[in-house]
Specification:
The complex is a heterodimer. Chain A is mainly alpha-helical. Chain A is built from 15 helices and no strands. In chain B, the strands form three sheets. Chain B has a six-stranded mixed sheet with strand order 7-8-9-4-10-11, sandwiched between helices. In chain B, strands 1, 2, 3, 5 and 6 form a five-stranded antiparallel sheet that branches. In chain B, strands 12-13 form a two-stranded antiparallel sheet. In chain B, a hairpin with a 2-residue loop joins strand 5 and strand 6. In chain B, 41% of the residues are buried. The chains are: A mainly alpha, B alpha/beta.
Chain lengths: 341, 261
């Protein structure tokens, strides 16, 4: 009975994903007839060159980025919620995104201080990814270190919050001393955008996300064991240290690389795992992993659609949209369930 | 396996906590021998170190000195999967919040045997269902674990340990939140499992009266020493008289229970 219900849900999710993808590609500031969209996607020439150009070089990469971002952030949230035994954990809440911001701000705002070649490397996309991953990785390590001393899961969130404010304080100091041009670059990055990635950058992001997902896939059994707490997990033969290391690595690669390319994006990582737990009513990580993949991609595609504001000629920052959608979802979950899992 | 009849034994074991600055010894020179097919209870007053002893015996904690031998092999030489196939636990700690059903919770006991992604085979399902039947919790299987009573939950934890299919089960104060009826039912179940499935079951408890009546052997922890023997021998040796250092509590060796003066 449960199995058939799950199959039904997964088929529905696949349909929704397809719908979200088609809508995301066919709607935008420039109205393009649906038939022309399909034509350009499948290789034949559209009636207007500009339409084809918009589809292939702007909307398709953006849709793919949205999917990668949605998937990666949601999975990293799922891993963190189980690892920290905390339903409110997520890459944004625990300060990982702020850590990434700090890393990136060092690179963008502070690059001028370093000698020429080094700063050219750092300011390239590789440098930004590296800085961003390192930033989120170090914050995650710090949070984990602190969580050893704090048995209470709520205080871990407060610690995450403190890291966020600490990181943003450093960013403020850096901004104060940097030029207007660099500051603008950083500000745009921090608003979050999934719109202007080159195909080369998308390949890079996809590569990082796939590695993160593979590591997560190998952690699913460990995550299931961790549902019973660390002592039971150990008594079930789990190599706790190793599993924890893999999970942390996966989360920081996912959150770090995504934040590097798309900026800090709030609430997706927190809300999506909850939606999938609510929908599937399970804690089995094999099911949650798959459903989180789907829901993450769908939500991000829809958020991006909203941020494009079809029919208007401006684009809203994606971070604002995910917060506007995500924050009420979390509050609604808290009130409705009164018991988050 | 080895020629000795003891499943789990300790050799001049010393337990406690070690930090950088000091070593805090809780008990030392502990020599225990646990056989298969026996229900063994561990008693002692609060804070005497029962949990520490159980955690050391189960390998969650390292001994300060001496050794714990499982099938005559030092516990520290076991890798974690191997150990998990020989020794299972029921702990006092609360589970983190999750959506696990009773069945899924019990199925997690099969982790030491499943493949990299945790897929359950026919054998695994058989073991799980057998554990459910033995503990008589078929009616709970599809419920969420947080929807059931404390008494039922304790049975579920026992079933999880059974599903792990180990020769030794160690339980830390399994009877704490239960009423008398459920305590007796749980102890009877443990007794039945020990004698019928030839398992060695070790549990700590504060229900000394019940433990005296049902255990095959008892381990008594006092601040001076740790003694293991059959309940009747412990009574005749007068071990229980010295268990609590309070004038108002007296052990009545005829009735086999504590009385308030």
């Amino acid at each position: 009975m449960v199995a058939t219900r799950n199959t039904l849900f997964f088929s529905l999710l696949s349909l929704l994903l397809l719908l979200a993808l088609v809508l995301n590609i066919s709607l935008g500031q420039v109205a393009i007839p649906f038939k022309e969209v399909i034509k350009s996607l499948f290789g034949s020439t559209a009636s207007k060159d500009t339409w084809e150009y918009i589809i292939i070089n702007f909307r398709l990469p953006k849709a793919i980025t949205a999917i990668l971002v949605g998937i990666g952030l949601s999975i990293s949230g799922l891993l963190m919620q189980t690892l920290f035994r905390n339903p409110l954990a997520g890459p944004y809440v625990l300060g990982l995104s702020s850590g990434s911001s700090l890393g990136v701000s060092f690179v963008i705002l502070g690059a001028g201080i370093l000698p020429g070649i080094l700063s050219t490397f750092l300011i390239s996309s590789y440098g930004i990814i590296l800085a961003s991953c390192l930033g989120s990785f170090s914050v995650l390590l710090l949070v984990l270190l602190i969580s050893k001393y704090l048995r209470d899961t709520m205080t871990i969130l407060i610690a995450g919050l403190m890291f966020s404010s600490f990181a943003s304080a450093i960013v403020s100091v850096l901004s104060y001393f940097s030029s207007a041009e660099k500051l603008q670059k950083f500000t745009f990055w921090s608003m979050g955008s999934i719109g202007n990635l080159s195909w080369q950058n998308i390949t890079l992001l996809a590569f990082a996300v796939v590695i993160g997902l593979l590591l997560s896939l190998f952690s699913l059994k460990a995550l299931d064991a961790l549902l019973l707490g660390e002592n039971y997990a150990k008594s079930l033969g789990l190599d706790l240290k190793k599993s924890r290391r893999i999970i942390i690595l996966a989360t920081s690669i996912l959150a770090g690389s995504i934040t590097a390319f798309a900026g800090p994006i709030a609430f997706v990582g927190l809300a999506v795992p909850h939606l999938s737990k609510l929908l599937f009513q399970t804690s089995n990580h094999r099911i949650l992993f798959c459903s989180t993949l789907f829901i993450g991609a769908i939500i991000m595609l829809f958020c991006d659609l909203v941020s494009q504001m079809p029919g208007f000629d401006f684009t809203l920052p994606i971070n604002a949209i995910t917060s506007i959608v995500g924050a009420p979802v979390v509050i609604w979950l808290l009130v409705r369930k009164n018991r988050l899992v | 396996m080895s020629d000795t009849k003891y499943l789990l034994s300790t050799c001049n074991l010393s337990i406690g906590y070690k930090s950088k600055s000091k070593v805090d010894v809780i008990a030392s020179d502990i020599n225990l021998n646990l056989e298969s097919g026996k229900l063994i209870s561990l008693i002692g007053e609060n804070g005497i170190g029962k949990s520490t002893l159980l955690r050391t015996l189960s390998g969650l904690k390292k001994p300060l000195e001496g050794a714990v031998l499982l099938n005559s092999k030092n516990l520290k030489e076991y890798d974690q999967i191997d150990l998990a196939q020989n020794l299972s636990l029921v702990l006092t700690e609360k589970l983190p919040p999750s959506n696990l059903t009773v069945f899924e919770l019990i199925a997690l006991g099969r982790q030491p045997y499943t493949n990299w992604i945790g897929k359950l085979t026919e054998t695994d399902l058989e073991q799980i269902n057998q554990a459910i039947t033995l503990t008589q919790i078929e009616y709970l299987a599809q419920k969420k674990y947080y929807e059931i009573s404390d008494g039922e939950f304790q049975n579920v934890l026992v079933a999880r340990a059974l599903a792990q299919d180990t020769s030794i089960i160690i339980l830390d104060e399994p009877s704490t939140h239960l009423d008398l009826f459920h305590k007796v039912a749980l102890f009877k179940l443990l007794k039945k499992l020990a004698s019928e499935s030839k398992k060695c079951i070790l549990f700590s408890t504060h229900d000394i009266d019940l433990a005296i009546q049902l255990s095959d052997e008892m381990i008594v922890m006092t601040s001076e020493k740790v003694v293991q023997d059959q309940p009747c021998n412990l009574i005749s040796k007068g071990v229980f008289d010295r268990l609590f250092k309070d004038e108002n509590i007296k052990f009545d060796s005829e009735k086999g229970r504590f009385m308030i003066r």
